[in-house]
Design goal:
Elements: E1 5-9, E2 15-28, E3 33-39, E4 43-48, E5 51-55, H1 59-73, E6 79-84, H2 89-94, E7 102-107, H3 110-119, H4 121-124, E8 132-136, H5 139-145, E9 151-157, H6 171-180, E10 181-190, H7 198-211, E11 214-221, E12 229-236, H8 259-264, H9 270-273
Parallel strand pairs: 6-7, 6-9, 7-8, 9-10
Antiparallel strand pairs: 1-2, 2-3, 3-4, 4-5, 10-12, 11-12
Helix pairs in contact: 6-7
The structure holds 1-{4-[(3-aminopropyl)amino]butyl}guanidine.
1-{4-[(3-aminopropyl)amino]butyl}guanidine binds next to strand 5 and helix 2.
Length: 276
């Protein structure tokens, strides 16, 4: 057997390496290198520009948390926008909420959507649902040019803050998101590792709290992401994700998210509290 390994250079000084059985696909699109690898430990893995985006074995953690925290916080989410997220995992979770009527996915790279449809059906199949519109576009331009404020929830399911995703972590972008949300709308963004990306988390939290009346950060453990500890930041116009009454809410089928975890994930370790 060939001894094949994939390595993500997570920081200048830290690598993440796992054994792979085979490479299923690689190509270079207009925006990035796209690879799908079959790993021994995590199943199929989507890699963009050398960084792990999602794996079949641990994707439920990220996709459930980025979706169900805001969608359970909102009493009646009907219109949802996802920026990035071309693999479709977030879309699959959104569609578990019965109130949702329309999901718009704005993904910059058409090839991520196509490669995910081809090689990762267990994550991407919800992209074919009739409540979903896929719009191949730059999310920054999309919210800038939006003239209405119809979205109940906007989810920023982006790559790391380098290259085309850099602008998705700026004050200007969050201002456009704010004006695209209904009067009780909620923004959630994936905001990287509190261990390796402290200054980014600090900056994003500050930006979001200057625009939204409620800003909150929560954590989840994601084995294949840098440091294994991951943050998400919420900006909310009206509903506090921590004090929402979840008891009367319908149940959905999850592997990570629970109503108890919805509260506990906002309880932060001291070094993370100190960033905010
Ligand atoms: N987006 C966040 C991935 C960030 C991982 N960073 C890294 N490996 N350096 C995931 C997209 C899944 N829908």
């Amino acid at each position: 057997m060939l001894d094949l390994w994939f390595t993500e250079k997570q920081t200048k000084n830290v690598n993440f390496t796992c054994r792979i059985a085979r490479t299923l696909h690689t190509e270079t699109s207009k925006f990035q290198n796209i690879a799908v690898l079959e790993t021994e430990e995590f199943g199929k893995m989507l890699v963009l520009d050398g960084t792990v985006q999602t794996t079949v074995e641990d994707e439920f953690i990220y996709h459930e948390m980025i979706t169900h925290i805001p969608l359970y916080t909102h009493p009646n989410p009907k219109m949802v926008l996802v920026i990035g997220g071309g693999d479709g995992g977030t879309i699959r979770e959104i569609l578990k909420h019965p109130s949702v009527e329309l999901v718009v996915l704005v993904e910059i790279d058409e090839r991520v959507v196509e490669v995910s449809k081809m090689f990762l059906p267990e994550i991407s199949s919800a992209l074919n649902d009739k409540r979903v519109r896929v719009n191949i576009n730059d999310g920054i331009e999309y919210v800038k040019n939006l003239e209405s404020n119809n979205y109940d929830v906007i989810i920023v399911d982006s790559t790391d803050p380098v290259g085309p995703a850099e602008g998705l972590f700026t004050l200007d972008f969050y201002k456009h998101v704010f004006k695209s949300l209904t009067d009780d709308g909620i923004l959630i963004a994936q905001t990287e590792s509190p261990f390796f990306n402290r200054s980014l988390i600090k900056r994003v939290y500050k930006n979001i709290s200057t625009i939204f009346p409620i800003a909150k950060l929560f954590l989840a453990n994601i084995p294949t992401y840098p440091s294994g500890l991951w943050s998400f930041t919420i900006g909310s116009k009206k509903y506090d994700p921590v004090s929402t009454n979840l008891q009367d809410k319908y149940d959905i089928d999850c592997k990570y998210y629970t109503k108890e975890l919805h509260r506990s994930c906002f309880v932060l370790p001291k070094f993370v509290q100190e960033l905010l």
